[in-house]
Design goal:
Elements (H helix, E strand, L loop, with lengths): L4 H11 L12 H10 L6 H15 L4 E4 L10 H10 L5 E4 L9 H11 L6 H28 L8 H14 L4 H17 L9 E7 L1 H5 L7 H7 L2 E5 L3 H10 L1 H7 L12 H13 L4 E7 L3 H17 L3 E6 L5 H23 L4
Parallel strand pairs: 1-2, 3-4, 3-5, 5-6
Helix pairs in contact: 1-6, 2-3, 6-7, 6-8, 7-8, 13-14
């Protein structure tokens, strides 16, 4: 899921005695494998995950670990484990969350200790856990700088080059202070890159289901496509938000959605309602909502988001993804959406609308 394999790989290498192997990068083959063996009605993140497991198992992986979530994601590990067994793979499957999908420090510690044969000191867990947390936070901070500026780079692929250097550098992290130095170095490199960014540039917010929002291949690289059009991209859904900000601000989310929600919605739905409202109040030019086909929490959130964008006179587009979704179809809709919000912005300058 995006660049987050770096902290997860670090965590597993430091907390267990296993040989940690990276699964092959996600490709069309990954989705084809997942779709072939998954139930037709299941959401597309399930199919991507299953395809990841199959490709990893074919390369020799025999220990898997998974966390849960606030929707059907919390139950993925059971049917996925059954499917893999029916395909003839032999493996151990560990669940990092508590029953019901809640991820806590305690549940992660217990799962990792079990994976390590019942041996894992709390001091070791806390130290390497802290480095893992910082890896996640630093990745999110640096990628946010990129999202806001890459569309205006003077030298093509300059941000992409620094991002690759970040991946390599963070993968070689050896300690807390070492990581901080690496982070400052990459941040300095990003800040030095030359950009030609107008003050009134187009700003687009991306909201939706967490996997499709954070995994570029699954959404056909929407952020890169927007950057090519000269758009500043905003996205609140990151692993930092989901793991650290959201659990502390559950009550605040309901206050943020006052006037539109009276009760908490499941999954990422309440977050997306809150983010849509916040983006509209802070001058966003358009909102893109991404969801898996038939994702019940997001289907419930769409009418509410539609009311918010209507009240604030902000255009929104809703994109639904499944294994049959056409990349060209998504790109065509994206280009049309860009043309529309760009025209609106130009017309507002001349008081035409």
């Amino acid at each position: 899921m995006g660049s987050y394999y770096i902290p997860i790989k670090y965590l597993m290498q430091k907390m267990t005695d296993y040989e940690v192997r990276l699964a092959p990068p996600i490709t069309k083959k990954t989705l084809e494998l997942g779709s072939k063996y998954a139930p037709d009605f299941v959401c597309i993140p399930f199919k991507y995950n299953l395809g990841n497991y199959i490709e990893a198992a074919e390369k020799g992986a025999n220990v898997f670990a998974q966390t849960g979530g606030g929707c059907r994601f919390g139950y993925y590990y059971e049917p996925q484990s059954d499917i893999l067994k029916r395909l003839g793979f032999k493996f151990d499957f560990h669940y990092l969350s508590e029953e019901g999908g809640k991820l806590t420090i305690g549940s992660v510690y217990r799962a990792l200790k079990e994976m390590n044969g019942g041996k894992l000191s709390k001091l070791k867990f806390l130290y390497h856990g802290l480095i893992t947390i910082n890896l996640i936070r630093y990745i999110d901070k640096l990628e946010q700088i990129t999202r806001e500026n890459v569309g205006f780079e003077v030298k093509k692929k300059s941000f992409e080059k620094v991002h690759k250097e970040m991946i390599k550098s963070f993968s070689e992290t050896s300690g807390l202070f070492n990581l901080k130095r690496r982070y400052k170095k990459v941040k300095k490199q990003l800040k030095k890159l030359e950009v030609n960014k107008p003050e009134d540039c187009l700003k687009v917010g991306i909201i939706g289901e967490l996997f499709l929002v954070m995994e570029p291949f699954s959404n056909f690289n929407i952020e890169k496509e927007l950057a090519k059009m000269g758009v500043e991209v905003h996205r609140e859904t990151t692993l930092t938000y989901l793991l650290f900000s959201k659990p502390r601000n559950r009550k605040k989310l309901l206050r943020q959605t006052e006037g539109y929600l009276k009760k908490v919605l499941s999954g990422d739905a309440i977050d997306n309602v809150a983010h849509a409202k916040e983006m509209c109040e802070h001058g966003i030019d358009g909102i893109i909502h991404i969801k898996p086909f038939a994702c019940i929490p997001e289907v419930g959130a769409i009418p509410i988001i539609d009311k918010i964008v209507h009240d604030h006179d902000v255009p929104a587009i809703y994109l639904s993804f499944d294994s049959q979704t056409s990349e060209e179809g998504i790109r065509t809709r994206l280009e049309a959406f860009y043309d529309m919000i760009n025209m609106r912005k130009e017309n507002k300058k001349w008081n035409i609308i």
